[in-house]
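Subject: sequence -> structure tokens, single chain

Hey, anyone have a minute? Need the predicted structure for the following. Not urgent.
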Amino acid sequence: MQIQIHTGHNIEGHEALATQVSGVVEESLSRFSDRITSVDVHLSNQNSEHEDGNDSLRCMIEAHLEGLQPIAVTDQAATLDQAVDGAADKMTHLIESTLGKLKHQASQRTDPPLS
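Reply:
Had a minute. Here:
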């Protein structure tokens, strides 16, 4: 699973941040790694550089699942750690739901499989 980290102009994108965010995302989504081709993580501050807090830090995660359209979630929090954790949890639930629906649909099919 390839993970790309993108930071907005108000977020200082250093190696330690990228490593920490990649670790959280990889750990959260590891059980789906055979279905995920890539993950894009976008970090931004919705306020100015000088105004942190008040749920102004945003993490958007977009996952590309094999054979499906990309899916995305967003979380806003007072800290980047909270925003990343929240978005990773949301993405885990969304992938579980998406794959569960696909499995259910496949089990309900009555047409013959393609040969």
